[in-house]
Design goal:
The protein is of the alpha+beta class. The chain has one domain (2-257): Clam (outer membrane lipoprotein receptor (LolB), chain A). It contains 4 helices and 14 strands. The chain has helices spanning 2-23, 42-45, 124-131, 137-145, and strands spanning 57-67, 72-82, 86-92, 100-105, 108-113, 118-123, 157-161, 166-173, 176-183, 189-196, 202-213, 216-229, 235-249, 265-266. The protein has a 14-stranded mixed beta sheet with strand order 7-8-9-10-11-12-13-1-2-3-4-5-6-14.
């Protein structure tokens, strides 16, 4: 079971990257899209950046509930982050023994499979060439920290929903339709929904259980749903729920250990 889980987690890492590759296709100019009269000016829209969570060094622990058509599993993650640079993940099942270690950089992803003594390196350039797209590390980092992942542009539409007390930031990026639901107080992302109109892939991320962390409110519960349609037109759903048990901003630089033992095979 542990061996299967380690392989599946490596596959999941690649699948998530592929999804975000598709989310970041070069935008298509849409001459019919203009901000409506009820949209907020870009100068107001940019104010949301002031509420982004942007620690230089950040470390966390979380419990994960993963469900897919092939596997239902619970495990823990110990993670570290250096802003705009590195995401480091150590994954352990219930026994407390590390089975997978991941190191994500802006141009590459490394996966260490301790159960099968395997090491795999993925180049973002290789993935981008394969799918003729461009992936941004910053999207992954933003979603982890609860920030709006896509840069704001003049064609975006921002509307205040008075009754529900939130803002809706609607964005079009090529074949992607992205809806960001942002709490009016404390101006933090509550939900993100992204639909790929090309292959009908759907991503939903919900942020809950906010508590103060530094100068922002941080979501201690993150619920992710990925829905895909296979060649047989059958819908498949993957859910990934994160419950943060520890979050800490580090005033000192963190280490990101990733040593590959000689006996490990490059797969």
């Amino acid at each position: 079971m542990v061996s299967y889980m380690s392989k599946t987690l490596a596959w999941l890492s690649l699948s998530l990257m592929i999804f975000f590759v598709q989310c970041t296709r070069k935008p298509v100019v849409n001459t019919n899209l203009h901000p409506s009269e009820d949209s907020i000016k870009l100068s107001e829209l940019k104010k949301f950046a002031s509420k982004d969570f942007l620690p230089e060094y950040f470390q966390f622990k979380c419990k994960v509930d993963f469900n897919s058509p092939k596997m239902n599993e619970n495990f823990s993650i110990h993670g570290r982050l250096k802003r705009d640079s590195i995401i480091w993940l150590s994954i352990t099942p219930g026994l407390g023994i590390e089975v997978v270690r991941c190191l994500i950089r802006k141009d590459s992803v490394f996966v260490l499979d301790r159960i099968n003594n395997g090491f795999t390196a993925y180049s973002f350039d290789y993935i981008n060439k394969m799918f003729q797209t461009q992936l941004s590390y910053n999207h992954l980092e933003a979603l982890l920290l609860g920030n709006v992942p896509y840069a704001k542009e003049l064609t975006d539409k921002l509307v205040k929903q008075e009754k529900e007390d939130y803002y809706l930031l609607r964005q079009l990026r090529g074949v992607q339709k992205i809806d960001n639901y942002i709490l009016a107080t404390p101006l933090r992302l509550r939900n993100l929904e992204a639909l790929n109109t090309g292959d009908r892939t759907f991503l939903s991320v919900s942020y809950e259980n906010f508590s103060p962390l530094d100068s922002v409110m941080f979501a201690n519960t993150v619920k992710t749903v990925i829905k895909t349609i296979d060649a047989a037109q059958s819908e498949k759903t993957i859910t990934l729920d994160l419950q943060f048990t520890k979050t800490e901003i580090s005033a000192k630089p963190l280490n990101f250990p990733f040593n590959v033992p000689r006996r490990f095979e490059n797969k």
